[in-house]
Design brief:
alpha+beta, 11-stranded mixed β-sheet, 13 helices
Length: 511
Amino acid sequence: MKFKTFKIVFAAAALPFCAMADVKPAQIFMDHMVIQRETQAPVWGTADASEPVTVTGSWGESAQTVTRADGTWRVQLQTPAAGGPHTITIKGSNSVELRDVLSGEVWVCSGQSNMDFSLKMLSKVVRNEAYKSVNDYLKHETDTADDHLLRQFTVSRQSTRTNLKGEWILTKPEQVSAFTATGYFFGRELRRELKVPVGLIKASVGGTVIEPWIPEEGFQSTPEMTAFMNAPHKVPRHQSPTYLFNTMVRSVIPYAIKGVIWYQGESNQKKRPALYGTHFETLITYWRRLWGQGNFPFYYAQLANYKGISDEPVEYDNWALICEQQRRALVLENTGMAVLNDIGDPKDGHPKNKIDVGKRLAAWALKKDYGVNLPVWSGPLYQSHEIQDGKVTIRFDHVGSGLMTGSKHLMEATKATNDPLQRFQICGKDRKWQWADARISGKDTVEVSHADIAEPTIVRYAWSINPEGANLYNREGFPASLFTTEADLPAAKPEEPSEKKPSDKKKKKKK
């Protein structure tokens, strides 16, 4: 009799728990997380419909809501000044406690392989013995890194738009090897200068073109973009329009962030290179719009030099065309670009020197977002030009204390040289390119000419996938970006007609 009573009581007690769903935050809210400091940070998750949910930070702030009919809830939690560790308690029918929470600066790190490559992956293979010292540096950094205030959340590729998956990892030898190398050195610079916790959110996939990272709302912005999205695309699902945004980015929104760093474009040199600028600017615009946190900083890496060197000036170069569109995207508010044409590896599309990549991206953030007193934070950028008496005068901004010729070796600081300027090309109306005579003619100007071109029309600089010898810098050691003085973008390289040969099967049938 007692046994039967026990069974009945147990069943009655169990019924409510079977019917109710535990309150559960999205997976980015977990132990060791970094939350954006001094802001109204969204915190969200799931629970039973109409279930009251309270989120409380150990710093004394709390927020309440009632779960919606679809089982989702969201609050805005006021976050504290930089520091920690804190706890966050989420209470509904049950209670969840998040431990070792830091308040600091949060940056999203996205793009393709040069963002995706982890410290371990980057230091694993040496394809060019000339870069072995950089490889050794990366290995040493991975083996000795120890900074509990620099952390990374890795967005899993198994995430969906409604189900974020991933984990927070720490900067210690057994975990730091999984950090994005580009993001790690960016974050390390912020840590050194700001002395506050830094959280990185890694959402990147190697080998991807830009279109999978663009939200559907962006593709609906113009008839041309819509037509592109709706056209048949015979590509793997990680390459189809909107796919990666929907799975790896949308699931993170609206996590409170400071900004985004981006490294991508290599895969687009063979896939719609002429459209890259339009698609890139659409991506930036709609990431910001959908995140709902204003025009947050969006800083990106221009492609590094790679592959063979061209001995003669070129008309077409899709790699250069991508780089030029990246430069022109700087017209968007609160963007910045790290110029990398002096740190690449001709034998490897994944340059080892992510140290300078991180530093150059961080320079933009430190100056523009954190008010650090830097004399300059970018390489010289083309501003304008004037043609007079057979000579073209190019004016630059971001010249710092002035222009110079320079040379950089691996991770060493740039050294001033007395070499003549190289890699300027010039043409007249016939578009017959010649290597130009170029000289620094002022603090922010370069004069370009050629003895055989009386009426020059266009000047280009470093216009090549590998502009080896390009040596224009500012005196603070940042390299000048490639550019063309043409108002309209140059054409992409025409596709070469493929010669289709009949297969053996067809040959046999003919016989």
